[in-house]
Specification:
two-stranded antiparallel ribbon; 5% strand; 497 residues; three-stranded mixed beta sheet; mainly alpha; 7 strands
Amino acid sequence: MSTLPRNHDIDHWDAEDVEAWEAGGEAIARRNLIWSVFAEHIGFSVWSVWSVMVLFMPTDVFHIDPAGKFFLGAIPTLVGGVLRVPYTVATAKFGGRNWTIFSALALLIPTLLTLYFINQPHTSYTTFLIVAAFAGLGGGNFASSMANINVFYPQRRKGWALGMNAGGGNIGVPAIQLIGLAVIAAMGSAYGHASVVCLVYLVLIVLAAVGAALNMNNVRNQKADYRFMLTALKVPQSWAIAFLYIGTFGSFIGYGFAFGQVLQIGFIAGGAKVPAAALHAAQIAFIGPLLGSLSRPYGGKWADRIGGSKVTLYTFLAMTVSAIVVASASAVADGHKHAPKGGVMVALVIGFIALFVVSGIGNGAVTKIIPSVFEAKSHSLQLDPAARAAWSQNTSGALIGVVGAIGALGGVGINLVLRSSYSATKSATTAFWVFTAFYLLCAVVCWAVFLRRPSGRATALEVVEVPVPGTVVSAAETLVLEAESRSGATAVPDTAH
């Protein structure tokens, strides 16, 4: 590993070189991880800024009903998800350091737009939707950050590193909600005070860009172009991983946008006035995303030890139970409109927070499956060890962005299903029964694709075109599911499935 300190470039990086890793590579990787986390953290905050803004937007002033606010939260989720595809290859093309600086500064656009329009209550709903769409720029940062950090860490540490990077970024959701809480508590929930939240983030955005410029590196032998994406998508397990990520990350970001509003609606239904309901909701809403973010690295760490597939399966079973708790609590509230709701709200909040925690664990576990699958796949390539490692690194890095994009669409689904449920029944009950069924389906898919052991070997063959000149790989259609890295050793399953 050689570096050129003046321009922050690294000509060649091989994270699997143990000697170089121990001679200073680990310190370089850690420094890049720290600033990647911080920049991604700010990105997540800006991405979820409208989950806070809606608490400052009373219906009698802005004339946007709860269903409209859920849709307002879905728009940045959708845009952020789509942007994750081009953002994935950006660090390889422009350099991790360079792209982090640019993508951080780009967050000034949605922050300034929000700062202006949140003080214009007579703005049309369409304009608010456009302004909220720009917040999606923050959602794209996840893909570029994850693809970049995937390069810096060896296979045996990827679960922890990717979990830490993603978890630290995810904390941006509760962080902006905490700032919103502080503003509401200190100044009240009148819409004019929302500007303070935006002003805080203008400063933090600049700090993230400056920190990246001074402390991060560009890895010049990193590759993650669209050819690698196409290669990754030809592997059947890639689509299963994307589906599972809809259930884990999609739930996290979807609930992150919706939790505060669900609480606010609940408190208003219980008799609280709008300002008090906003304050009570803000006092609780940040807890779920915070715990979900903190649990994500543990999901990656446990996946390193016992396998990403197993942890993911346990996660979906726990999410199924948690969703049943929320649905049941909501159903009880629906049946007793005039009864005291203290106990019902406690059950709803506990179930909701449990969903955040276990979805965070699942995020880390699913992310670990990605490099494991391609590490195992690489052993079928007619390449030398270094070229196999590069193929695994680049293909898994490309898929992380695709999976992140598809997973983010789960957040759109969460908000749209909640919007539909509230529009039809004035309640979240129907939505959570839908989520319960979906989590159960995710558990079945995880078991069937990654854990079920068939009685015989797969015989169908496919040809996978690899973006290495002159290389075409023939392999069993479902060659290997997951190569778990433990203590630096790769364990490749002996059954093809």
